[in-house]
Design a protein that fits this description.
By secondary structure, this protein is mainly alpha-helical. The chain is built from six helices and two strands, in the order E-E-H-H-H-H-H-H. The protein has a two-stranded antiparallel ribbon with strand order 1-2.
């Protein structure tokens, strides 16, 4: 679906999107309609949020809304080991920095690969694992023999 992008002025550029949720006619579902008539009634029926009192607004926090599905998606993707760069592209962020700002706390194993690589390199250099193949970084370590004599 091709939608306007940017501000409200006429003649603004458009972008084409593949929509996940559409009406029976293939049009985009308005977010406020989806929230008020589909998402929140389903959450209330499941007991996640209180039922709406007739004539009043829904009493739900942002963490109970539809946006939380995006956060769940991002956390699952990151915990599966996908790169932040790829996730940023999939979420439509203009930069991976934005993605990291919002989702870095979903990276509990962040740094584990780097720590393992350094541990393997230092173990190899110290002779603790002499039968192991040279780990990545060995050449750089040998060039810096003044740091760790090999």
């Amino acid at each position: 679906m091709t939608l306007p992008w940017g501000g409200p002025e006429p003649g603004r550029r458009t972008r084409t999107f593949a929509l996940t949720l559409t009406t029976t006619h293939g049009n985009a579902v308005r977010a406020n309609y989806f929230s008020a008539h589909i998402s929140k009634p389903a959450l209330a029926a499941a007991g996640v949020i209180p039922a709406r009192v007739e004539g009043e607004r829904w009493q739900a926090s942002r963490s109970d809304g539809f946006h939380v599905l995006r956060d769940i998606y991002a956390s699952v993707i990151l915990e599966a080991g996908e790169s932040v760069v790829t996730l940023a592209r999939w979420l439509g962020h203009s930069s991976p920095v934005i993605t990291l700002h919002y989702y870095a706390h979903f990276l509990p194993k962040a740094g584990a690969k780097g720590r393992s690589a350094i541990n393997a390199l230092l173990a190899w250099a110290s002779g603790e694992s002499s039968r192991a193949p040279e780990p990545p970084g060995t050449e750089a370590l040998q060039r810096m023999a003044w740091v760790v004599p090999v």
